[in-house]
Design brief:
2 domains, three-stranded antiparallel β-sheet, 14 strands
């Protein structure tokens, strides 16, 4: 992955947003820009400087990960002097961007009043995320590996459906299979929704036994080298009823319509509409309560969003 080149692609976006620098507070964005995976840190991006500040727990880790990523950043280790370090680095900077979606009101006031009193703080939205939308080959490979691993884990536990497990038991078996196959973990809390629970898109696995005639909705993913997969599968226990078979046929047609709509310069809302129209025509539009889809990457929900309210356009 070309981690080292990401900051250089970010700098023109800062200028376009009217910022002389950016304080990156999102740990996910810090990882994307530097390779650093610690749970505490601040990254200052200026036109002629790149400064990562973290505490002593991560001194060796940060040094190793910056070197592995080929990122030429200054590294400062301080638990109590971060304000002074960053304040000195920002001195003379006119407009400093803050990531509006990852700082609280209290943090903003502290930065404004105490840390950077001479700078004009500017809220920014999605500067790093706009880079993350387009994945490089290394990122795609990791997402593919996560998807293949999750798919194999499902194939392993699928026969358990015939044993009448509870939702919780099947979810635990799936999570265990994902970890046993080498994933860092699941990419989000696994959903197992059987029978009437399938009407709840984010149902948590519970004590309900899975039995003959049930449709079982599984929503799950694997985390591989920091990258997420996300897949939803609906399984049938036994033979489907005529209504269940029609539901399968309609959803399959909806999926195919969405895939056919995907093309450069197409709005993601149009892809959602293509899927939604098939289900509307079948008379089940009121049951389509979820967006069609979203991107994945270092986070489970990333842009672009594919939904009726989405504003993105496919590249």
């Amino acid at each position: 992955m070309d981690v080292a080149g990401r900051v250089e692609r970010l700098r023109p976006a800062l200028a376009g947003a009217g910022c002389d620098g950016l304080l990156v507070t999102s740990l996910v964005n810090i990882r994307y820009l530097t390779g650093f995976t610690g749970s505490a840190g601040l990254l200052l991006v200026l036109d002629d400087d790149l400064l990562l500040v973290t505490d002593g727990r991560y001194a060796q880790q940060a040094d190793d990960q910056l070197a592995a990523a080929g990122v030429a950043a200054r590294l400062e280790i301080s638990g109590t002097g971060q304000r002074e370090l960053l304040g000195a680095a920002v001195r003379g900077t006119g407009r400093l961007g803050l990531e509006a979606s990852s700082v609280t009101w209290a943090q903003t006031r502290r930065f404004d009043d105490d840390w950077f009193p001479d700078a004009t703080l500017v809220p920014t939205d999605g500067l790093v995320e706009s880079l993350r939308i387009v994945k490089d080959a290394g990122e795609v490979a990791r997402i593919e590996a996560a998807a293949h691993l999750a798919d194999a884990a499902l194939a392993e536990v699928r026969p358990l459906l015939l044993d009448g497990p509870t939702e919780a038991e099947l979810g635990l078996a799936l999570d265990t299979a994902i970890r046993r196959r080498g994933a860092e973990g699941t990419s989000f809390e696994t959903i197992v929704a059987s029978g009437p629970n399938g009407a709840k898109p984010h149902h948590r696995p519970g004590p309900r036994p899975i039995g003959e005639g049930d449709l079982v909705v599984l929503d799950f993913g694997a985390l591989v080298d920091g990258y997420c997969s996300d897949m939803t599968r609906t399984l049938m226990v036994g033979e489907p009823s005529p209504t269940q078979q029609r539901m399968l046929d309609v959803v399959t047609a909806s999926q195919r319509a969405g895939v056919a709509a995907v093309a450069p310069d197409v709005a993601t809302a149009a892809v959602d509409a293509a899927c939604r129209s098939v289900i509307d025509e079948a008379g089940w539009g009121d049951a389509f309560v979820h967006g069609t889809g979203h991107g994945v990457g270092l986070q489970i929900h990333e842009d672009p969003r594919v939904a009726a309210t989405a504003t993105a356009t496919l590249a």
